Structure formats: structure tokens, C-alpha cells
Amino acid sequence: MSSAADMRTxxxxxxxxxxxxxxxxxxxxxxxxxxxxxxxxALFEPCPGPWLAPDxxxxxxxxxxxxxxxxxxGYAEVAxxxxxxxxxxxxxxxxAAGIVDHFEGAKLAIxxxxxxxxxxxxxxxxxKALLNxxxxxxxxxxxITSLREAARALSYxxxxxxxxxxxxxxxxxxxxxxxxxxxxxxxxxxxxxEELGDAGASVIIEDFVVGEEASxxxxxxxxxxxxxxxxxxFKRAGDDDTGSNTGGMGALCPVPGYDQAALDKxxxxxxxPTLHALAEAGRPFSGVLYAGILRSGDTxxxxxxxxxxxxxxxQVLMPLMKSDLFELLESVVKKxxxxxxxxxxxxxxxxxxxxxVLAAPGYPEAPVxxxxxxxxxxxxPAPLRAFATNIELPAVEPDEDADEDEPRPPLTExxxxxxxxxxxxxxxxxxxxxxxxxxxxxYDYLERHAPVDYFYRRDIAAxxxxxxxxxxxxxxxxxxxxxxxxxxxxxxxxxxxxxxxDYAGLFDLNVAAQLRxxxxxxxxxxxxxxxxxxxxxxxxxxxxxxxxxHCINDILVSGARPLFFLDQVAVNAIRPGxxxxxxxxxxxxxxxxxxxxxxxxxxxxxxxxxxxxxxVSGTIVGVVERDAxxxxxxxxxxxxxxxxxxSGLHTNGFSLVRSMFSAAELAGTVPGTxxxxxxxxxxxxxxxxxxxxxxxxxxxxPSGLVHITGGGFTDNPGRVLPAALALELDAWALSPLxxxxxxxxxxxxxxxxxxxxxxxxxxxVVPAAALEAACAAVPALTRLGQVVTRAEGGEAVIWxxxxx
Length: 804
Known about the structure:
This protein is an alpha+beta fold.
């Protein structure tokens, strides 16, 4: 849109944390040479230093002219004075006063809606009527202007209702009332007591709807828009959503459950119908349309609209923005948003952002002004940011010799202390890979730097319920699973009768109708310490295949083909980057092997598991013809013992391995190879289903199968061998991996054979006559020995030679 050489000044109108966040984001544009904030606050120039904006782009204050004051004319004069090529309006009051209409009449470029379009925020009565006309879901409501009307209207509502002031109330005009008596009292205070002035002259009585709220903003150009990531804000002053309504005590972004598909649906069902209705009403909307929404069951309701960027939503959204905000807003002013988006899709950084507001004592009813705030608090290190409001320089001791009219001398360095000039003072924001980490960064910083007389909520970005206080985030767990819906449902066949999220999985056993005498075979198993090693290394992506393949092999030794699978992933705390790869791996392994993933559990159990730990387990159910099942009874003396290679340790021996290495040592390579230790250790467990199918297709029916899992070669063969028989095996040369583990652990032959699979993951016992056909069908098979008579009291495995 603009050449790199076209450097320009942008004016941001306002003085709060929202405007601070907008100013910093606009200053990051290569097309912006300076951002002017009017009226701004003390953290902008004259405070020295480029720490206010990326790349040293200055952010400066501009004062309103005394004779024009806080008016559209006053701001227009500032825009002309600083040479602004674009002005961006932050708060609602200038919009309600018609600032956009005045700027456009004066041929000054400004981003924001007209006064008429802004009525979608300034009048909830107008907004309700518009929503109903547009067919957008919104809670049932009545508009009243007197107590007499209120008493009559309330008779049509259940006891619990929401009372809202129709006009602008600074985010403090909504009240939940538990009964009609309380509702009438609130209405009296608004209408007769003028508690909120003109804003409460008209009042809305609204159904109370239970659900999860979110704030979603869209950049709009008349009938076009782009929807930004959803944000959740926290309005009440106290923890667990208690206390008075405020302008917002914190926020998080993104909101679980609002992926791109959900945002696209909001665009088609809420934003576009609303924009079309505004255009039809002769009030075309250009600017930010902010929808306060609530999900209840399958319905998403619009609770309110705002006509500008939200506060504190903007403070957590802007740090995630990857696209050029200046170019995006400029495209709206030039009325070519659609063309701009076609060439420049709006992008945001991955990860999460959490912001917590620090408020002055007495806020919101009677905030105390002039309380000190340290430079350390207001200038945090990355990835933390501080977006301030109502920040002032401390008073200067009077100089008896100085002229009273002489201006304050310019600052040469950032002062060590500022003071507050209002209730909310600063939003401390952190970005991190996930919400939990971002939240931890913010609260750790506030614990160390917040003044003792200020206050902040301790539960921002945590659910305000008992589970959240115990450290369990149900929303996040559901969000992780929901994000894998396509992968999980991709494992379904017509035999799956349940759906994702049901209490139990249902599977139609008519799929086994072709079997004469079917037998179900089931197994439950877990990954044990391997999951701890993977979690500590931040490499959980292979654990899904480990689990499914391990369980497949457990029922395969009976000759069963798998039908369906159920999983459980248990953690101390949900970390999407840790849990999602596991679940995705489970779904992928099931799909590859034709197994339906019909159920699962993602369990968050703080106190049971230590931080970062993960436990992965699963249950598999398969089917086999009764007379085709493999149970070892067909094994006979003279049968040949073959081995299928493992891919490494599979899922056993990790407790010992974990004790052998420090984290630093695991960063090295396996002696004699170029393979890093972690790569070798975390290679997924192999599945032998394909090899088994190849044997059956070649007409080879194994007389016995032994999955080498816990207990290695010492314990597993005895599970299937008749008591009178033993396996006579020749020891084989160890691979570099097992040779290195033997040496490092100073392990005896007995310890080796009982702990590890030694490179063989499955023993296959076949009649001697089938040896040639078996090896031809599965070339990976290696002859290891034969079946012999077991001496009385003898071991199930007789070894010749030693592994070296």
C-alpha cells in the first residue's frame, strides 16, 4: 500500500492502556515515522528513550488546545498541527461526540465509525432492535423508562435477570439481579437515582443466560470485515468474579474453542448480518465492531456491541499481531479492505497472551490518586509489556526563585517513580507458548514489583470455579480434544455408533458377523517412564504411536485383529504443546491400522503428578475366530523360533535408563553412531500387525507369539509356552544402542535379558515345515533358535553364548 520511503505520523486519540498498546503496535509499522498520542500520559515523551516502541520509533504526547478542549474540533486541530496522515480513535466518548464525522468533513483521515453508526454502542436499545432485525441471536429483552413499566415487564421474566443501562457507562452498566425485588431496586437507582446519569435514563431488562463469554473484534469496512482472535476479559473487581463491575481487570487471548472455523462462523452469523443491517439503516459502519458474545449450548448470543477497540482486550491482542496494523487500518479509511485482505491476509503470532490490570486502592468506587509506581514495574523486560493509563509525573517541589509560568525542565532520563491519576493504572502483559506460561510470567512479575497498596485479581486466565482453584482447566482440555476432531473422527467406520464427547464409545459387533465363533480380546497398558523422558525432553509426539503399537502387539499374540481403542492422557496441568501431539499420534496410529478411536480421557490431576509429568495409557479391543486364536497350545518340540526386530527400547527399561543419564548427557550421541541418545531412546515402539498379516496371507499360522515387553526374555516367553517346553536361543550381537547401555549400566547378562528387548520386539514360533514360507513372507525375520523339552524345574529360555 505504502512505499517504505513514505514515512508518516499517526495520531492516536486517548490516554489509556488501550491507546498505549495501539501506539506501540502502530509504531512497529515500517511506514510510520512517529506516533502522537493525545492527550497521552507520562510514559510517552517527554520521557526519554526508545524503550516505548520497537525500533526506536518515537511515541510522543500532544496537548489539546485550551480554547477547544476535549472536542472533535480540538482533536482535529491536533491532527493538523502534527501532520497526521491517519488518526485512530481509542475511547467511545469521542465517537459518540461525532469526531469521525467532523474529521471527514475537514478532509482528515480517521479510523472509526460515524456518530450514527456508533449508536450500536451508545444505545443498547438501538442495538437490540438492530440485532433482532438482522436475525442475530441475542437474549430476550424489554426496554423500559419507568418503574411502572419495569414492574409490568419483569412479570414476563424469570427471577434472575440482567439489568443494563442503555447508554454509555464505561463498562459498568450491567447488573445481574437474583430476583425481581433486587432488579426493581437497581432500576430505581438507574432511572430515579440517576446513578449513571443519562446512561441510565433508559434501561434494558434481559434474560440471564448461562454460558462462557468472550469478546470478538472485527475490523470493518461497511459490508466487509476481518474477524480478529477472540479474547476473554474479566470485568469484576474481585477474584471468582465477585465485587463491583469495572472497566476490566484482565484478559487472555486466544480463547479456547475459538479456532479459525469458529471465527469464520461468527463472521457469517453475527458480523456480516449486523453490517448489512447497519448499511440498510443508512448507517454504514467502518471501524472496529466489538461483539460481547456468550456461548450457551449450541447457540452463540450477542450480549452487546461496542464501536471501538476493547480495553483490556486490545492490550493482550496487539502483542500477538504479526500483520502491519497501520496498513490494515489505512485500507479501511481508503475503503479497500477487501482488496487489501486478498493480498495480505491478517496474521497473528502463535502462542498466548495474558494481561492483568493493577488498580489503585479504592477502585472502582473511590480510587486514591497520587500513589507511587516504580519505573521497574512500568518498564518490564521482554516478553513482558506494560500498557499504562492515568500515569503522571510526580509533583515537583516548588522553587521559590523560579517563575511560576516557567515550564517544567525537560527530562534527561526516565524518572524512578511515577504516580497514578486514576483507578486502573497499568496492564502487565506476557506472551508465551500457552496461557499457563503467560499467566505465570505476569503473576511472578506482579508479585515482585506491584506496590503493596495497589491490588489486582489473582485468577485472571483461570476458570473462576472450584476446579480452577484446584488447578484443573476443563476448557483447555476440551479445546485440545476439539482441535483434533477431524483426526479422531477420521478413524471412524460405520461400526462406530457414538460420537466424540459421549460418555462411552459404542461399537457395532456385527462387523464380526463373518466370523463363525468370534472371541473378543482386550488389553490395557501404559508407557510408564518413557512418557516422563519424552515430556522432560519436550518430545511427546511419538508417544501416541508407542501406546497404540504396544497395545496392538499385546492382543496380536492371541491372533486378534484390533477393532477399537480408548486412551487416557493424565497430566499435572494441560499444556497443549505437550498433550496435543500425543492425542494426534494416537489418532494417526489408529487410522493407519484401521482401528476406531472411540473414546478417551484427558485428565488434569494437580497434586497427583508433578509439574511437566505425563502418563499415557490405553485399552484396545480386538477379535479372533475361536479356533484360530494363538494361545501357545500348538507349540511343539522342534518348532523354530524367529525374531522380528525392534526399533529400539520400545517402551521398557526407561526407569533404568533415566537413572543412567543427566539431561546434559542425553544431548550426546550413542557411541559408535551419529544418532543422538534422545532420538534412539524415543524412537516409537513398532507394530507387528503388518508382519502378522503377511504371514497369514502366506498360509503360515504361528504356533506362538511372544511380545517382548516388561520382563524381557526372562518373563515373557513363559506366558505362552506349555510347561513342558522351553526356547533354546543363541545369543546375538548387540546393536550399538544396547551395547552402550550394557556398558554404561555395567549390566550382567541376566539384567540385560530381563530389562531390555535387545533388538527383538516379537518372537514368532512356527513349525519347522513353515520356516521357508515365513521368511519369504517377512524377510525381516531372523532365526534365533528352536523349541526343546524343558528340564524339570528349568527356565523357559535356555541361552547359548552371551550378548556382546
